[in-house]
Specification:
Radius of gyration of chain A: 13 Å
Strand content of chain B: over 45%
Shape of chain B: globular
Order of helices and strands of chain B: EEEEEEEEEEE
Distance between the termini of chain A: 40 Å
Structural class of chain B: mainly beta
Helix content of chain A: under 10%
Oligomer: heterodimer
Largest sheet of chain A: 6 strands, mixed
Largest sheet of chain B: 7 strands, mixed
Distance between the termini of chain B: 37 Å
Helix content of chain B: under 10%
Number of helices of chain A: 0
Strand content of chain A: over 45%
Number of strands of chain B: 11
Number of helices of chain B: 0
Number of strands of chain A: 11
Shape of chain A: globular
Largest interface: A-B, 28 and 31 residues
Structural class of chain A: mainly beta
Chain lengths: ~110, ~120
């Protein structure tokens, strides 16, 4: 089945720093999505990407759909304490089958 | 507007028992998917239902089953519970299956503990 490799596994950064995380796969996906999950809650959708090469921003977040359709990255600029959480990438096929990476745990030190 | 709702919030069962988890999708969403999230990992796809029919199934044993009702709500059933079934069970809803721009929105999950 499709496997997503997400890196880094964890990040410890200072407030105000920029963050970058990425996801790669051996398979092609039609949609790439990025979710954030806080402890004890369900994942919350941050950004969805639909076309190869697409670059989309949502406030301080920017994500890109890789040109090969096998990878995506997420950047967070000027991090703040509330950015703490686990970030998941997900690749989705047309049948709604969605595969998740293992997550990047972000810690922001004030 | 109400998001995806799930019940119960927490559940404790013993090995061999059966459990039923419930999910109500966002109003207007007709597709429901179920995921299992073990601690420290990303969600794993279990089922997708659309218009009361199973449209996708992940690599889970037959002990796992689900159904969708005419109002698009859904139930996930797990029989003969094992310790390894302890996890957060997530429900996600989306617009009709197929096509682009059908993002899935998650509920808060049901935390199942099997003793």
């Amino acid at each position: 089945g499709q496997q997503l490799n997400q890196s880094p596994q964890s990040m410890f950064i200072q407030e105000g720093e920029d963050v970058s995380m990425n996801c790669t796969s051996s398979s092609i996906f039609n949609t790439w999505l990025w979710y954030k999950q806080d402890p004890g809650e369900g994942p919350v959708l941050l950004i969805a990407l639909y076309k190869a090469g697409e670059l989309t921003s949502n406030g301080r977040l920017t994500a890109q759909f890789g040109i090969t359709r096998k990878d995506s990255f997420l950047n967070i600029s000027a991090s703040i304490p509330s950015d703490v959480g686990i970030y998941f990438c997900a690749g989705q096929l047309y049948n709604n089958d969605m595969r998740f990476g293992a997550g990047t745990r972000l810690t922001v030190k004030p | 507007d109400a998001g995806v709702t799930q019940s119960p919030t927490h559940l404790i069962k013993t090995r061999g028992q059966q459990v039923t988890l419930r999910c109500s999708p966002i109003s207007g969403h007709k597709s429901v998917s179920w995921y299992q999230q073990v601690l420290g990992q990303g969600p794993q796809f279990i089922f997708q239902y659309y218009e009361k029919e199973e449209r996708g199934r992940g690599n889970f044993p037959d002990r796992f089953s689900a159904r969708q009702f005419p109002n698009y709500s859904s139930e996930l059933n797990v029989n003969a519970l094992l310790l390894g079934d302890s996890a957060l069970y997530l429900c996600a809803s989306s617009l009709p299956s197929g096509g682009a721009r059908n993002e899935q929105f998650f509920g808060p999950g049901t935390r199942l503990t099997v003793l």
